[in-house]
Amino acid sequence: MVFYFKARPEAGDYTIFMGLDKFENEELIKYGFPEDIWFHVDKMSSAHVYLRMRKGQTIDDISEGLLEDCVQLVKANSIQGNDYIIVYMTGNKVNNIDVVYTPWQNLKKTPSMDVGQVGFHNNKSVRTVRVEKRINEVVNRLNRTKVERKPDLKAEREAVNAAERAERKLQLRDKKRREEMERLEKERQAEVRSYKNLMVADKMTSNKEIASTHKSLQELEEDFM
């Protein structure tokens, strides 16, 4: 089961989502999208919350309001301890917590890690934001948009992969077409330059011949005189 939430309207049409438990988290880690941003309470058990950005956007494009929605949802679904299964919808009474967030592609999963556990490829790509307290107004608004689904995460990811492959194939074909057009244009320009040079050479030869002929006529005239 995956829970989906709608971010505040003024932030744009963004979806925030999280898994039911650590097993769902494992699937979300495995089949995430390049546009996904992962959120988690630092050094505490909490929901793995994801924000799906638009294609081409990065972590730098997260607005202040959108960030607040994500961190409030993480805080509202976190507890102290290591029990990932009962994390969700319990609420967290601890104030002044840190929430870490990073692009999905920076998540690192090794065979030795427990189910739902992740690390990072690059710690410099992990950001931290301090959350002073729970804002009920934000959490309640998000909860009113909540939708439960059982998505086929693997199929969704494979569909994205297929679309990306098709796009790369199209881009490669367009690149080859442009390169061929550029090659033909260079050949055409080379032929034009060669033709102009030939015309200049022919013209110079004709002038010499005329001059030579003119000299010969003068000599003939002198001989006649």
- β-sheet strand percentage: 15-25%
Oligomer state equals single chain
Q: H/E order of the elements?
A: EEHEEEHEEEEEHEH
Q: Bin the helical content.
A: 40-55%
Query: Span from first to last CA?
Result: 118 Å
Please state the average pLDDT score: 84
Shape: elongated
Determine the structural class based on helices, strands and strand pairing.
alpha+beta
Q: What's the total number of strands?
A: 11
Rg value: 35 Å
Low-confidence spans: 81-91
Enumerate how many helices there are, as a single number.
Answer: 4
Main sheet attributes: strand count, strand direction, barrel closure: 7 strands, antiparallel
Strand numbers in spatial order across the main sheet: 10-7-3-5-2-1-11
Properties at a glance:
46% helix; two-stranded antiparallel sheet; alpha+beta; seven-stranded antiparallel beta sheet; 4 helices; 225 residues
How does the SSE layout of this entry go?
Blueprint: E1 2-6, E2 15-19, H1 22-30, E3 36-41, E4 45-46, E5 49-52, H2 64-76, E6 78-79, E7 97-103, E8 107-108, E9 119-120, E10 127-131, H3 136-144, E11 147-149, H4 153-224
